[in-house]
Amino acid sequence: MSNEIDEKLLSNLFKQVRLGYTKVNLRGRECFVKHSSIDDIDQMDESYSHFLLKSKKMGVMREKEIFELLDKEGIWTKDDDDDLLKKSNELDNLKKTLSSLILEKEKTQIVKRIKEIEESTLSKKREKAGLIKNTAEKYAERKSNEQFIINCLFKDKELNEEFFSQQEFDELDSSDLSEVYSMYNDSVKIFSEKNLKQLSISGVFFSMYSLYSKDVSNFFKKHPMELTFYQINLLNYAKMFTSIFENHEIPNDVRDSAEKILKHLKDAKDAKNKVEKISNKAKNSDGFSFAKATDKDLKKMGVDKRGTRDIHDIAEEKGGELNMDDFMKMHKK
């Protein structure tokens, strides 16, 4: 899909969101895939609990019980879990650090470390997953997913007659099941976060949305609790971008792209934070040094080097050396 979504695709996307279903072809017949709502998720949760209890009665071990057994046998221990947790925490911290760094040299080192951790933990995660393929939770998850699929496939656009009966679904072989799941996954790809955000600022949707005041609870002629998740997300994105247009100056060359608008705001915020950070440091220290920053780095940050004094220049004035008193005066401590 191109970066800029064409109007025909957006129009089709909006139509499907409005209707609350997607029409597909399954096994040579028309099939209507219902878009899920909070009721469907509630039903799925109930189904999961039902099958989890059923698996327990069947004697299937819970995940916790299996890991306790593996720990006793030394196959997968608590130390292995602790190590994965530490690596995960380190990874989160590195990503936060990366977002706040200014110099490209520093970023390169962090990116390298992030890649190392991701590669080293991937094999361990796969090893752990391979040890718990047949658990009560896995059984309940698989069965509740099957029930979810049955409940969202219909023969008619009124969504009254299910496409499969329970017996028909149970009789599907692995190839047929694969076809059903593949069809479902393909049918929901269009409803990506990126596409819904783009739709929320498009003319085909926004021209109708703008007819409403701040209360859009009746936009889809449904009670809010009956809205599909796609309808809810679309309305929320529209409210978000409406607020953005009201409170920010958005350049004309990015106004037609939701992705570019959000990137513009993020870049502007990051640039402002970096400039403030550097400017404050320079303001409070006569000897603020740009030793690690190239002129290119400074220009990219939006920092004006004029008016600050490099630590090496100050040292030269002092005869080539700086003592503790000099440093204290420079940093005004």
What does this protein look like?
- The protein has 333 residues and is mainly alpha-helical.
- The chain has two domains: 25-189, no CATH class; 259-330, no CATH class.
- Helices cover 63% and strands 4% of the residues.
- Helix 1 (7-19) packs across helix 9, helix 4 packs antiparallel against helix 5 and helix 9 (193-200) packs across helix 11 (229-247).
- The chain is flat, with a radius of gyration of 29 Å.
Fold topology:
Elements: H1 7-19, E1 21-26, E2 29-34, H2 38-57, H3 63-72, H4 78-100, H5 104-130, H6 136-152, E3 153-154, H7 166-170, H8 174-188, H9 193-200, H10 203-209, H11 229-247, H12 258-283, H13 295-301, H14 311-317, H15 324-330
Antiparallel strand pairs: 1-2, 2-3
List keywords for this structure.
333 residues, mainly alpha, 2 domains, 3 strands, 4% strand
**Approximately what portion of the residues adopt beta-strand conformation?**
under 5%
Main beta-sheet annotation: 3 strands, antiparallel
Total beta strand runs = 3
Low-confidence stretches: none
Q: Any idea what the radius of gyration is?
A: 29 Å
In short:
The protein has helices at residues 7-19, 38-57, 63-72, 78-100, 104-130, 136-152, 166-170, 174-188, 193-200, 203-209, 229-247, 258-283, 295-301, 311-317, 324-330; strands at residues 21-26, 29-34, 153-154. It has 333 residues and is mainly alpha-helical.
